[in-house]
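Hi R.,

Here's the chain you asked about this morning:
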Amino acid sequence: MNSKISKSAVSTSNAYQPAFFYNSAREGMRDLLENVPLSEGGVLLPGFIGWSPREGSGVFDPVREAHIPYGFYSLNGDLSVDIDDLERRLEAGTFNVLVLIHYFGRTDPYLKRVRQLADAHGALLIEDLAHGFFTARGGGEAGRHGDASLFSLHKQFPLTDGGLVSYANPRLVSGQVETRPELASKVLSYDWRGIAKSRRRTFATLTSLLSDLPELDRKFKLLWPALDDHDVPQSLPVYILGENRSQIYDRMNADGYGMVSLYHTLIPQLAGGFPSLVTLSRHILNFPVHQDVDHTLLVAMVESFRSHLGPPDEAAW
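And here is the predicted structure, written out as tokens:
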């Protein structure tokens, strides 16, 4: 008798999303650009992309090295997509790849609209989740609308390197070759839910402590006062109202608190084009919220932060 329902799953294509592991996310991005069939056109990226002398630019360097034409679109003050500007730039140019970055692990609130615009203009949508592995795996919308998703594993796990590219559409896979397949076992060896819970708890505790400071809205602002239910932060960004972001960074690290100044310098290709985002890059400071953070030291870390805050510059916001 023929079975109407098999005893177990046998289809290798049902819900199949090929995943490739690399030394870095940028290596995966380069492999994607070199192997995904693309028509004539360019890559459209957000106008807030960082650069450092040691690492270069993770998402932009592969585009430049592949000699692919590129353009940029603007963002709002909270690093969400400026939908009106994105739509104008898609209409004005020919782009077959659109990159959306979920900054610091926060799902961009306009993700679904970005997907609609990509479809309307025939562009492949790449979700950059370098900071959002746990966000994408937490049941929310991030990582579920792109044709491909990029992950930087060493920014989420205790690894020295590692990148991952996941393809929502297996037909986009042709000649891609992963370089670090052994990373799969390392990633699977951690409690993702436990890490996500720890990061969210630290973010909430720090936000509460910072919100109680009298300097809030006078010397600094919280870029994101709250998290959506499924977001897992890479760090907690604050906006320093004065011009002393770098000084606070240096002094807090000297105090033993691992502060980060992500996107402190934007790629030179953005110079002159997005002045508000350049200003933003000069004022953001990131508190650590990773799974190793000792909660008994959070009060002292916030006290260190407060002690190094200088006079505010209200015009900077």
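One quick note: The chain has a mean pLDDT of 95.

Cheers,
M.
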